[in-house]
Amino acid sequence: MQDNVIDNITGQLRYLENDIYKSQRDVNRLSKVLDTLKQEYAKSMVYAYKSRDNYDFSDSVISKLNSNRPAATPTASVSQKPASSTNTPATTVRPAGDLGKKP
Predict the structure, then answer these.
(1) Range of 37's domain?
(2) How many domains does the chain have?
(3) For 20-32, how does the pLDDT look when each residue is reduced to its tens digit (9 = 90+)?
(4) Is 48 inside any structural domain?
């Protein structure tokens, strides 16, 4: 009887240790992903700041963030930038809610 209880508790401990190990592995992986996303966001902010010539800074940030969405996301549309822009991409992605507004 005591051997069964000890085996049961040992099995539960192994299960919990395995679960803790998997959780820690996920935390480590997600931490690396977070670091990568932070670096990409910092680059996006620098790009938005440097390319703010004819557009408001926040519009550039929103455009850059929307351009990183998966292609299947139907919440973004593409509009042409004015020809007078220099050193900036040819198009800006704007949120679907801003379709009726002029840039």
Answers:
(1) 1-67
(2) 1
(3) 999 999 999 999 9
(4) yes
